Structure formats: structure tokens, C-alpha cells
Amino acid sequence: MEPPEMINAGELVLKRWEPEWAAELSTAVRESLPELKPWLPWATDAYGLAESSDYIGRSVDDWAKGAEFNYAIFTTVGELIGSIGLMTRMGPGILEIGYWIRTPYSGRGHMTAAVTVLTRVAFTLPGIERVAIRHDAANAGSARVAEKAGFAEVSREPGDTGRTDVIREHQPV
Ligand SMILES: CC(C)(COP(=O)(O)OP(=O)(O)OC[C@H]1O[C@@H](n2cnc3c(N)ncnc32)[C@H](O)[C@@H]1OP(=O)(O)O)[C@@H](O)C(=O)NCCC(=O)NCCS
User: Where are the domains of the chain?
Assistant: First the structure.
């Protein structure tokens, strides 16, 4: 099971992460910290080139192992505007989508478009019957993206430190 290394999504292009993008990733995360910190535990004030290089390194390894398929999101003119990935951690037959967007590019429908296209790709992969999104119940932005991309709530589970996570799934396409 391996998705394409590059996916065209209209105004966006998803490309498997490459080490040479580490500096731009660090810049993108740092300028988005106020929006990322409440929801993503790795997004801290200490984030820098070491962390972005480490993330890309792990993404390269995880892709090779078939554990995670992480993509940088670019505009068609080459601006790096976020990240999205498919994770196998929920078990066999199901892929979970995770994502974040670079703050100056938020609110333009980009993540809804990226999630929609990656969901379609996920359902083309052999053995994949379910595609899910897990988000903090208090994360209204992520909830709305998931809802607009066609993901309906299927359950709730305890999250980190007293929080509640919403699990959503998409009907097979
Ligand atoms: C959530 C996030 C990915 C949204 O990305 P985006 O590209 O701005 O989303 P879109 O432009 O596709 O917006 C889709 C819908 O969500 C709504 N939305 C976006 N951010 C929102 C927020 N903070 N609160 C409420 N609604 C929000 C938009 O208004 C839009 O709905 P509408 O068309 O009904 O107006 C982005 O805010 C982000 O990266 N957040 C921090 C990281 C995160 O939470 N990742 C997900 C972890 S599960």
C-alpha cells in the first residue's frame, strides 16, 4: 500500500516531504504557532530547524515503513502552506488524516480542498475501507474542515489531560 508521492488538488499540490524543505517548514510553523499550539503538542515556542528536520526525517522513514504518508502542501506557485498526512495508527483497514495550515493562508478553503482530495486517494488504496479524522471536541476549525469534507461524527473518546476527542469517518467513495 503506497499513495502517490505527488497529488494535484486544483489550486494546491501535495508533495511527499523532502529534507530540503526543513527551513521553510520551520518558518511556516513558527509564524503559525498561536493557531497551532492549542491543538498540536509538538507546536511549541522551542520549534526550530532541528524539529522540522527531525519531522521530515521521520516522515521519510515512516513512508518507507508504510506507517505514515505525510505531504507538504504547496500552492501552484510554490508557496509551502501546510502539511497533511495519512496515518495507520488506528489499525488495519483504516487511515487517519491529520493536518495544519500556515496561518497567512488560512480561511481560503485550502484545507477543505486538501482533505477532500486526500480522502479520495486514501479510498483507492488496497485494503482501506475507512478514513477517519480525530480532533479535539473544542477545535471548531478542525471540526468544520472535517464536516465540510464529508466526515461525520462516529464516536467520542477521552483525549489528553481531560479533553474529549471526536472521531469522524467518511463514507467510502
Ligand atoms: C483547522 C485548520 C486546518 C483550518 O484550515 P483552513 O484552510 O483555514 O480551513 P478552510 O479555509 O478550508 O475552512 C473550512 C471551514 O472551517 C471554518 N474554520 C476555519 N477555522 C476556523 C476556526 N478557527 N473556528 C471556526 N471555524 C473555522 C471556515 O470558516 C470554513 O467554514 P465555512 O466555509 O462554513 O466558513 C487550521 O485552522 C489549522 O491549521 N488549525 C490549527 C491546527 C489544527 O487544529 N489541525 C487539526 C488538528 S485535528
Answer: 6-134
